[in-house]
Design goal:
The complex is a heterodimer of chains A (414) and B (237). With 414 residues, chain A is α/β, with parallel strands linked by helices. Chain A is built from 14 helices and 17 strands. Chain B contains seven helices and eleven strands. Classes of the chains: A alpha/beta (414), B alpha/beta (237).
C-alpha cells in the first residue's frame, strides 16, 4: 500500500507509528488510539488512503465484535496477510493505526464501534460488512437500540452499494437494518436475548417467535432464510452448498459458534472455503484476555467479559455449573455510569452455587442477587475472591473496566 | 394485615422496559414474599387488556415511539385510569410517569396523557442524565430518595399533585422537584430499580396495597449499604 501513498500520507504514517511506539514504550497502552489520532491530524484522509485497494471486511454489532473479528482474521489469513485492529480499538483512530502498521496486507478485517459504522463504510469501501446483533448497551450515553437500528438502516440504504452484507437472520433489528442492501448473506447461530425485539421494527406490532424463527403476523416481516446455519448440536456449521463444516473451537458457548459461522461466511466472500478456514478458527484460544485462563494459588480462573444484559445471559450459558463464579461490576465512564441494566439480567441460574461478588459496584450486585435468592459473598477485589474460592477451576464474569482491572492484575493477559 | 396475596401488574414490558424496569416488579415481589405475602406477577403486553383486579400497577420507561403507542393503548383500554381513580397503587416511571399526566411531548408532537396526575410534560433543552437524589415529601414517610435519571422531558406539576421529592442532586421534573404523587399514584424519573434503591418506597406501595399501617421490618443490610454508598458518592462528586 505505502508505495502508492502521497508524501503527506507517508509522513503521517511515520508519525503515527512513532507516536504509537512511544505510547507503548511508556506503558500507556498499545498506542492504537494516540497513533491514529496523530496520523489523522497530519492527513485527515489517511484512513481512506490506507484502505484504498485493500479487500476490507468490517464487523459491527453490540456483542461479539472483537471475537468475530479475530475469527474472521484467522479465516481470511487462508487467502493472505490480514491487517486488523486486534485489541479492540474500534474507532477510526484504531482503524488507521491497524492499516498503517500492516502496509503490505492486501486484506483487512476491522472491528467497528456501532456508532462509527457509517464513517467506516465511507472511508474504507469494504467488500464485506458483518452485522452481528443489536441490544441495549450503556444506555446513559449510547443511543437507544431501536434508534441505532434505524440509523444503520439509513446508512445501509445510502452508503452500501457494492458491499456484501453478512447479517444475522435471527435478530429482527439486524434484519430490518440490513434489508435495504443489494447483496445480503443471511447467517443463523441462534439468539438467547430477545427482549429488545419483541416489537416489529417495521410496523410496531408483536413479533411471534417459534425457536429461532420469528414473524410479524400483522405486516408479514419475517425472518429471512439463512444460507449459513449452526448445526443443531453446535459442533458444525452448514455452508450454503449444504456441506457440514466441523468446528473445533477453543472458545466456549453458543455465541462463539454463531460468531464462527459469521466469520466463515465473511471469509467465503474473499474466496476462502469454509473447510479451508475452519481449522484456523481452532487456533483462537483467547481474544484480548477474553476466555483466557490465569492461575494463582491453586486456582485456575477463566476470564469472561460481559458488558450488557445480552452478554451476561450468553456467559451464564457458557460457564460450568459446578464451579465457583466470581462476578465483577464497575460503572465507570466506558461501562456507563448507570447499573440499572443488571435488573434485566436473570441471575436465577446461579442459585445454589458459590458466588463471589466484587468490583466498584459490588453492592449493587449484592442487592440484585438477593432479589433472585442467590447466595453470595462480597469481597473487595479479585485477589480476595481467589482466597474465598475453593481450589481448582473458577469462572470469572466481569464487565468492561472490571475485566481490564483483572487483566492488569494478571499482567495484561491476552 | 388485610390480605396475604398481591397481584402485581407490570404494564407493557414489550414497549416500556428500557432501563431495568423489571427491577421494580422484583423488588415488590421480594419484599412482599419475605413477609409471607404471596405475589402473582402479571406481565401485560400492549396487545392485551389491562386487568382491572390488580393490587399494584407498574409502568416503566421507553423511547418516544413506544411511549405514544403505549399512551394511546392505555387511553383506549381505560382500565388503568379507572383503577387509579379507585385508589389502586400505581408506580409510573419516566415515559410511564409522563403518560400519567395531562399531556406529554414525543417525536415532536404533543400527545394527550391519561390525566391521572395533574401535570404536563414537555421537552427540555438538554437531557437529564445521572444520579438524582432528594428529600421526599414528609407525608409519605419514606425519607431521602436516590436513583438514576435519563430523560429529555421536563415536567410541570399542577395544583392537585405533590412533588415526590425536593431535588438535591440531578434534575428530576425541572431541577427543583422530582416526581409527583396524589392518592396512591406515584410518578418518578428515577428509572429502573427505583424500588430496589428505595425499599421504603417499595414498602409504601405494599402497605397501600394490603391496607396495612406497618410492615414487619426486613434485613436491609445490603439495600441500606447501597443507599449510603450512593448518597456518599453524591457528596464526593
Amino acid at each position: 500500500m505505502s508505495g502508492k501513498l502521497t508524501p503527506r500520507a507517508k509522513f503521517a504514517t511515520v508519525l503515527l507509528r512513532g507516536a504509537a511506539a512511544l505510547s507503548r514504550a511508556t506503558g500507556r497502552g498499545d498506542g492504537s488510539v494516540i497513533g491514529g489520532r496523530v496520523g489523522l491530524v497530519v492527513e485527515p484522509e489517511l484512513l481512506n488512503l490506507l484502505a484504498e485497494g485493500r479487500g476490507v471486511a468490517l464487523v459491527s454489532g453490540t456483542n461479539g465484535k472483537t471475537t468475530t473479528t479475530r475469527f474472521t482474521t484467522a479465516a481470511m489469513e487462508a487467502a493472505g496477510k490480514v491487517a486488523t485492529n486486534s485489541f479492540g480499538a474500534n474507532m477510526p483512530t484504531g482503524h488507521t493505526t491497524a492499516l498503517a502498521k500492516t502496509p503490505d496486507a492486501q486484506l483487512a478485517a476491522l472491528e467497528v464501534d456501532e456508532h462509527y459504522l457509517g464513517q467506516l463504510l465511507g472511508a474504507t469501501q469494504p467488500k464485506v460488512v458483518g452485522l452481528l446483533n443489536l441490544s441495549r448497551d450503556q444506555l446513559d450515553r449510547a443511543m437507544e437500540v431501536t434508534s441505532l437500528a434505524a440509523k444503520w438502516r439509513e446508512i445501509v440504504e445510502k452508503d452500501i452499494h457494492d458491499s456484501i452484507v453478512v447479517a444475522n437472520a435471527d435478530d429482527p433489528l439486524i434484519v430490518w437494518a440490513a434489508q435495504p442492501a443489494t447483496h445480503i448473506v443471511w447467517v443463523s447461530g441462534g439468539q438467547n436475548w430477545t427482549a429488545d425485539s419483541s416489537i416489529c421494527p417495521v410496523c410496531g406490532k408483536h413479533l411471534d417467535r417459534f425457536g429461532e424463527f420469528w414473524r410479524c403476523t400483522h405486516c408479514g416481516f419475517t425472518r429471512p432464510n439463512p444460507v449459513w446455519t449452526v448445526a443443531d448440536e453446535g459442533s458444525a456449521v452448514i455452508a450454503p452448498d449444504g456441506s457440514r463444516v466441523e468446528l473445533d473451537l477453543q472458545l466456549p458457548g453458543r455465541i462463539n459458534r454463531a460468531n464462527a459461522a459469521m466469520a466463515l461466511a465473511m471469509a467465503a466472500q474473499f474466496g476462502v472455503s469454509p473447510h479451508q478456514a475452519a481449522p484456523n478458527l481452532s487456533t483462537v484460544q483467547s481474544v484480548a484476555g477474553r476466555y483466557a485462563t490465569v492461575e494463582r494459588d491453586g486456582r485456575r480462573l477463566r476470564l469472561l467479559l460481559a458488558k450488557n444484559p445480552a452478554g451476561w445471559l450468553e456467559n451464564f450459558d457458557m460457564i460450568r455449573p459446578d464451579l465457583p463464579v466470581i462476578l465483577a461490576l464497575n460503572a465507570r465512564e466506558v461501562d456507563g455510569f448507570d447499573t440499572s441494566w443488571i435488573y434485566d439480567v436473570d441471575f436465577n441460574s446461579l442459585r445454589g452455587r458459590s458466588v463471589l461478588v466484587t468490583g466498584d459496584r459490588r453492592t449493587d450486585l449484592a442487592v440484585r442477587l438477593e432479589m433472585d435468592d442467590v447466595d453470595f459473598t462480597v469481597v473487595d477485589d479479585v485477589s480476595a475472591a481467589i482466597g474465598h474460592a475453593s481450589a481448582g477451576d473458577v469462572e470469572v464474569i466481569a464487565n468492561y473496566t472490571a475485566f481490564q482491572d483483572i487483566r492488569k492484575e494478571f499482567n495484561r493477559v491476552n | 394485615m388485610s390480605t396475604s396475596y398481591l397481584r402485581v401488574v407490570w404494564l407493557y414490558p414489550d414497549l416500556l422496559s428500557t432501563y431495568g424496569d423489571r427491577g421494580n416488579l422484583l423488588a415488590i415481589a421480594h419484599r412482599a414474599r419475605k413477609r409471607g405475602i404471596e405475589v402473582e406477577p402479571i406481565s401485560v403486553r400492549s396487545d392485551q387488556r389491562v386487568p382491572d383486579q390488580a393490587d399494584i400497577y407498574l409502568i416503566g420507561g421507553g423511547e418516544d415511539g413506544p411511549q405514544s403507542v403505549a399512551g394511546d393503548r392505555l387511553i383506549q383500554d381505560g382500565t388503568l385510569a379507572r383503577a387509579a381513580d379507585r385508589g389502586s397503587p400505581v408506580l409510573a416511571v419516566c415515559a410511564g410517569y409522563q403518560l400519567m399526566g395531562e399531556s406529554y411531548y414525543a417525536s415532536g408532537e404533543r400527545h394527550p396523557g391519561l390525566g391521572v396526575l395533574d401535570l404536563k410534560s414537555d421537552r427540555g433543552q438538554t437531557r437529564a442524565v445521572g444520579e438524582v437524589a432528594g428529600d421526599s415529601d414528609p407525608n409519605l414517610g419514606i425519607g431521602r430518595v436516590t436513583g438514576f435519571e435519563n430523560h429529555g422531558g421536563r415536567t410541570h406539576l399542577g395544583e392537585a399533585v405533590q412533588p415526590l421529592a425536593r431535588v438535591s442532586n440531578g434534575i428530576g421534573n425541572e431541577g427543583g422537584t422530582e416526581g409527583a404523587w396524589a392518592g396512591h399514584v406515584i410518578g418518578t424519573y428515577m428509572h429502573g430499580p427505583a424500588l430496589a434503591r428505595n425499599p421504603q418506597l417499595a414498602d409504601l406501595l405494599i402497605r397501600w396495597a394490603v391496607g396495612a399501617a406497618q410492615l414487619n421490618p426486613l434485613d436491609d443490610t445490603w439495600p441500606e449499604r447501597l443507599r449510603s454508598e450512593r448518597f456518599h458518592a453524591l457528596m464526593e462528586a
